[in-house]
Fold:
Amino acid sequence: MFGIYGLIGEKLGHSLSAIIHEMFFDKSGFPGKYNLFEVKREFLKDSVRGLKALGIKGANVTIPYKVDIMKYLDELTPEAEKIGAVNTITILGDRAIGSNTDYFGIGMTLKKLGIQIKGKTAVILGTGGSSRAASQYLLDQGIGELIFVSTNPDKARQYYKDFRIISYQELSGIEGDLLINCTPVGMYPEVNNSPVDKAHLKQFKAVFDLIYNPRQTLLLKNAIEMGMDAINGLYMLVCQAAKAQELWNNNNIDMTLIDRVYLELERSCSLGEKGH
Structure:
């Protein structure tokens, strides 16, 4: 059955979500239309009501609303409640149900990168909605030590009470196996920015930058120049979109289809040159 879907966020000029979901609609046999819904913070509650009123079957949620939108939903799935962030909404009747498919996308990307998690040390830049999904996946996979880096450590400790949280100034004294960037620093159009200096990268073995536009952020460029394992957020974006489609249509999407969409997207999109 044909359905209308969309993405709720503040600024969506960089988003590839519509392209990805349209590709899944075309290849999976579940017809639909995907739109971008730029929403001002004061209208976030109304946006959920609007989904119901307009008969929209589902929506994704992106920066900066993954945490704030939770209080306007009727129900949370167990993983969304555990993570403390929502990136996917499914409308069932008059109920808006919040899920988190970032968790699946992050896990699939780390597997693609070939990163061993158990017993290792990971540092996460940022403490927003995406970092919550990333940290939960790492914890579930038996990470040895998990450290968060925040511009406001005191505020971050209100949520991450049981974890070590440091400032960016303190990062120089930290060594680890994996560095994950969950901040928007380096995203188009601010492509000349990096959340950390190149000198800090020598303290790590691998870098995962959740940003996908540009395809190679300054952070990833520096990591690759240093011979590190590095990956951007495009595969994560495709995987989490596939998981959202599964929730909306109550069906499974084969991994071969996910890989087809990812490879086609890599070939067809010129990231970093303009917004999407």
The chain has a mean pLDDT of 93.
